Every structure is written in C-alpha cells, then in structure tokens.
Amino acid sequence: MTTALIALLALSQTADAGRGGRGGGAPDLAVTVSAPALVDVYDAATLSVRVENHGSANADGVSLVIALPETATSPTVHVLGDLSAVDGRCVQVGTALECSLGRIRAGRSETVTFAYAAPWAGVALDIDAEATAPGEANAADNIDGVTLDVVYVDSPIDAPAGVTNRHCTGTGLQAFYECTLYPSSISTHDILLNADGSMGFPPGISGYTGSWWQDTDDHLHFEYEALGMTRLVFDGNGVGGDCFEGLSEFPGTGYNAGYEVCFREL
Predict the structure, then answer these.
(1) What pTM value is reported for the model?
(2) pLDDT at position 24, please?
C-alpha cells in the first residue's frame, strides 16, 4: 500500500508539472508566417501563422499580433487590402489582428489562419507577426514575416481604345484602393489610346497631348504633356475586369494620384 501511494504521488506530481509548466524550465516560442509563393491581385489568399513552443515548459497566456499592410490615408489609417475568414481567436484592432491563443504546451504549436486579398500597390505588401508569453526564455525567434509577390492580369490593348480614368489626388498615396475607401474623393475623365501611341483628350482637357505604351501585357504606361512640359506620368498593371490600377505622379508638384484605367466602348 505504501509503495503504491508513493508511486501515485510521484505520477501526480509529474502530471502537475506538465500541466502547469513547472519543473525548472521555461517556454520558448517560435513564429513562422506562411503565404503562397504567388498571389493573384484582388484574390483572397490564405495565410497562416504558426506559433510553436520549443521550450521545456508550457507557455500560458500566449498573445499573437499580426501587422497588416497600411494605407497612407489621413486621419484614419486602414488595412491596405481586404480581410476575410479570420480565425475566431483573433480580432481586428486598427490595422492588426490581435489573437489570444491561451496555453501552448511544451513541444506543441497553434496555427492561426486568415485570408487577405492584395490590391495593386506601389509599396511592398508586408505581413509580420509576433508572439509573446510571460516568462519566455528566448524572444529572438518570436517575430517572422513575409512580403507578398503579387501577380497581375494580362490586359493587352487593341488600339484605338477608349478608357475611363477614375482617380483621387493627394500626397504619398500608395494605391487606387485608397481612393475607394473615400468614394466622394474620386474624379473621372476619358482619354483615347491611339494606335500610333499618341493619346486623345476630350474637349474639357484642352492643350494636352500624350503618349502611351505597353512593354508587357500586364503593364500600362502613359504621360500627359502641356505647354512643352510633362504634367502627369502613370504606371500601372492589369487587375482584371478590363482595368488597370496604378499611380500617377505630377512632376515637380509633390502630389500624386491613385488611378484606375478601364476600357470603355468607343
């Protein structure tokens, strides 16, 4: 009986140490962010963040923060892109996902998934994640991230072609997506892409000439000129729906504009 009781107590202590993270060790979290090698523009891609406990003790109260791409809008900053299918342990706070993962036992892991649709953007679309837990031994591998490689849509132009430009103007804009967050800021005008690479403008835009070209089927470049000076330079890529998106710069002004360029019937 005494021998059996001692064995039972020893087993209970071992189980308690495993449950509570006691026994002289410490948790050690490691984070890995995974994304598809290529993501199609505006298509929701599934990303995952794995939090693994390499330590010799359980990690309690594990928190995970996933930082998402941000707009350059002011005064409110938004996520630059669309989120969906977010793990139920996470909530969106500003431009980040904050996730409560609770306990991760020693040698175990938890994985959070979400879907993100990348817009056309003139900046790198970085997604970074950091996990924390009280009493952790080594925080050096708690952060990981990926930069998304976005694939655009081939949209070869059969000139002459009419296009409608929608745009909003500001400073430091990164994408036409930012314009769509504030629809009242969007203006519209039409242009004509002629077969010889020149451009035609409606009567309301007098005194302008221009040129356009495609070096690849998914890319469009055009420039407006007036009074012998370049007034606007656009570079963008196909995003589907017979449209391009990109940015226009106004040389010498400090301003730029998010642009959507869509084919229209002539």
Answers:
(1) 0.88
(2) 57
